[in-house]
Amino acid sequence: MKRLAKILDIRSSPHVASGQSVDVIMFNVVLALLPVTAFAVYTFGLAAILTLATAVASCVGTEYALCRFTGRETSIGDWSSTVTGILYGLTLPPSLALWMVAVGGIIAVSLGKFLFGGLGYNPFNPALVGRTVLQATFPVAMTNWPATPVDRFTSVPSSTLAWPFTEPAYDAVSTATPLASWKFEQEMTDTGDLLLGTVSGSVGETCTLLILLGGLYLVARRMMNWRIPVAILLTVALFSGLLNLSNPKHYADPLFMWLSGGLMLGSVFMATDMVGCPMTHPGCVLYGILIGVLVVVIRVWGGMPEGVMYAILLGNAASPLIDNWIQPRVYGTTGNQS
Amino acid sequence: MTLFSRKTFAHGIHPPGLKDDTKGLPIRQFPFAPVLVVPLSQHIGKPAVPVVREGQEVIRGQCIAQPDGFLSVAMHAPASGVVRRIGLTPSITGRMTSGIFIDPFPASTQEVPEGTPCDAATANPEEIVAAIQQAGVVGLGGAGFPTHAKLKMPEGKSVDTLLVNGAECEPYLTTDHRVMLEHSDDVFAGIPYLMRATGATRTIIGVEANKLDAAAVLNAAIPDGAPITVETLPVKYPQGAEKMLIKALLGREVPSGGFPLDVHAICTNVTTTAEIGRLLPRGLGIQERVVTIGGPGIKNKGNYRVPIGTPLRFVLEWAGMEENLTRVFLGGPMMGQAVSSLDIPITKGSSGVIGFTSCESSPLNDSKHYPCIRCGYCVDACPIFLNPSQLGLLAENGEYLRMSEDFHLMDCFECGCCTFVCPSHIQLVQHFRIAKAALRKAKVEAKAKDDAKDEPKPKDEPKAEAKAKMLA
User: Fold this and answer.
1) What's phi and psi for B19, nearest 5 deg?
2) What confidence tier does A338 reach under pLDDT thresholds 50, 70, 90?
């Protein structure tokens, strides 16, 4: 008979695990973003490649540097800063000066995430924090949408390569985003163009179909709570539909609201960021409704054409409160947890 | 029998079943170890009191320890032999407990003489409760709660339904499955005792859909006219937990801090039921139990009828272990307890002996920890609808009191779903165990403090003395 050679390994149960891991989830978000990213490169050419590369490099680099500086084990392996970088890059105008992209990326990870304690502790979506700071700091550069040149794979807009800390010069031809032309000129864009993304806008927000494809992948892999985008989109449709019925000339129809601007990218990939959204399903629905209402309010009555970014940040701010209000009803009890 | 029933509970998880290795293997008798150690405390409640002395010869099945009070059961000799000594033995809890060491006679036929039978048709409820206590029956699913204590109806309580738990939702374990297949007659012999003792008017046997063959066998064996139905349940962990089974089959929720009796239900494990049906008509006591010996670290996997008190070392040596066996636990992988010593004996609550090699245990030990990303997986998994994420954060800060007062910590029955799903590999249920233990300890200490205050009063002297004795 054989004797046990080694010492027994004692551990409290469970002795099995699902195998799910944070880095796997984050990597899958990167995968889900690939079609959108590829389309962004196809539409905007070299400018998009440079913008996205700078965004990712600045986010990951900042994370690495801060970990080194604070003497922590480096956390870039969990892919979360890569996700932040890609998402942040996708929300930028394609002609933004690269030094501005880098500034935003550094701010996104340092102030948006690391300052609060890193992954899991950030109350706001870091990518949106970075973009918000840029929007406030460089309002002109952040709202300049150049027409896509035919030679997009061989040349870059002059503004992209502006020297650090200089004001970029813009190419003459500039277009308005669908939302801006609706808001300021009452011109509507063709729905087909909106679906396929052949309109001007931020790097990755234009093609609705590919965003939905990425979202479906994450839902199928149970890495995204589908209730959030559904609640946001239904709220937007309902709210803007009512407004549209009351005055079709003044208020845009729900389909336009859905397909224009950053609503799809924001509701599918940003509002669903696990760290910033409530934990319970009813909480997530409430959070989605709140964001949906804010999007319409900002778009219709606000000073800016687009409001998804601020709506999601406000939703993030509200989610701890929602979690406080809405807790699951414990089996065998009648009341809620405090 | 309704196939593909949708009756289930909300939340829960779907761990891989891993039952294929042993579910087709018939129950076989396990040999007698050179020494058997019968712990006096194999159940929740007071340890039994030995009624044999060192050097005494015992016959297999003979009562060797009597229950001490109501919440305690009798112990029976697992083999004919001689009592070598009564002394300390390691137990699964990590503490040493008293046990009776028996050296079996190698040449004995090991026959079990029958005792006074208890007839389900004529015995009154009190007699049945006493017979079950005398037979030493405890929950064989692993809980180890004395079965007769559940059957005794308190004043003003009544039961309408007996639930027989054949869910066996833990991975690897196949003992209930084999018992249902091979001993369905014992199951149906046991049910009348339980119904008569509790006054239940109907019985539902709940079987998970991965054991359809067992459900079919049971369904075909239902005695004519008996108010018994077999229900299949979707495969989901922890379907076999009492509260979950009651929710699934009856749609009732046991109140927080309460018992199944509060919703007029009583729940017994199918193997416990079969054991009652086998023992009571012959006046026997539990001297062995069916154990699944399996897992990747075991060579000769199977379902064995193992004498109570067989040391794990003998079990593993006889069943054969792989070179790199590193972890052994009693019960299933979700709730089973890892053993710290191979001198621990098989007890009435040991439903499985599962061995893991380094291949299975190292991914879990080496998995990288991440901060909680508030993904909500644990909230979606908790069958009791707690918020494990919130509880985990509180536990890390040591806010145990808030955990129990504001977040229902004490309702947690430690199924482990939260730890299973956590992508950050946070040891949630392990934290909760520590928190619950700390709270229990604090409660005892607070009580001792209160008692100490009372002590100086001369009037209470005899009472204080009794309490001091109790604490000691």
Assistant:
1) -100, -5
2) very low
Contacts of B370 in chain A (CB under 8 A): 21-23, 78, 119-120
- Residue of B361, B385, B429 lying closest to A330 (CB–CB): B385
Distance CA A287, CA A319 (A): 7
**Residue B459 pLDDT > 60:** no
Asked whether the beta carbons of A261 and A177 are under 8 A apart, the reply is yes
Kindly tell me the burial class for residue A172, based on how many C-beta atoms sit within 10 Å of its own C-beta (0-12, 13-18, 19 or more): exposed
The CA-to-CA distance between both ends of chain A, in Å, stands at 58
Chains A & B: contacts with CB separation below 8 Å? 181
Q: How many helices (H) and strands (E) does chain B have?
A: 16, 17
Indicate whether A65 and A159 sit together in one domain.
yes
Q: Chain B closest CA to A64's CA: distance in Å?
A: 16
When CB atoms are compared, the residue of A8, A121, A225 closest to B371 is A121
The DSSP 8-state label assigned to residue A162 in this structure reads P
Nearest to A4 among B255, B320, B325 (CB): B325
Indicate if A40 and A169 belong to the same structural domain: yes
Touching check for A337 and chain B: CB below 8 Å?
yes
The ipTM (two decimal places) reads 0.89
Is residue A188 domain-resident?
Answer: yes
Q: Is the residue at B49 inside a domain?
A: no
Each residue's pLDDT tens digit, B100-109: 999 999 888 8
Number of alpha carbons in the 13 Å side-chain half-sphere of residue A201? 30
A126 contact B CB<8A: no
Residues with Cβ within 8 Å of residue A151, at least 6 apart in sequence: none
Whether residue A260 is found in the same domain as residue A147: no
Query: Which 8-state DSSP code applies to residue B340?
Result: S
Q: Which residues contact B202 (CB under 8 A, 6 or more apart)?
A: B160, B161, B162, B227, B228, B229
CA distance A289 to chain B (A): 19
Q: pTM score, two decimals?
A: 0.90
Lookup: tokens for B234: 């979707």
Q: How far is B421 from chain A (nearest CA, A)?
A: 5
Pair (A153, A190) in one structural domain: no
Helix, strand, coil % over all residues of chain A, rounded to 5: 55, 0, 40
SS3 B1: coil
Per-residue 3-state assignment (H helix, E strand, C coil) for A250-274:
CCCCHHHHHHCCCHHHHHHHHCCCC
**Rounded to whole angstroms, how far apart are CA atoms B165 and B184?**
13
Domain boundary among A148, A175, A202: A175
AA identity, residue A92:
L
Q: Which of A13, A74, A280, A330 to probe by mutation at the B interface, max B CB count within 10 Å?
A: A13
Last-in-domain residue among A175, A204, A225: A175
Residue B255: give the domain boundaries.
Answer: 125-282
SS3 content of chain B, % helix, strand, coil (to 5): 35, 20, 45
B98-139 tens-digit pLDDT: 999 999 998 888 889 888 899 988 999 999 999 999 999 999
Q: Is B101 helix (H, G, I), strand (E, B) or coil?
A: strand
The total of structural domains in chain B comes to: 2
How close B460 comes to chain A (CA, Å)?
40
Amino acid (one-letter) located at B23: K
User: Could you tell me if residue B276 is inside a domain?
Assistant: yes
**Model confidence band, residue B472 (pLDDT cutoffs 50, 70, 90):** very low
Question: Phi then psi for B230, rounded to 5 degrees?
Answer: -110, 130
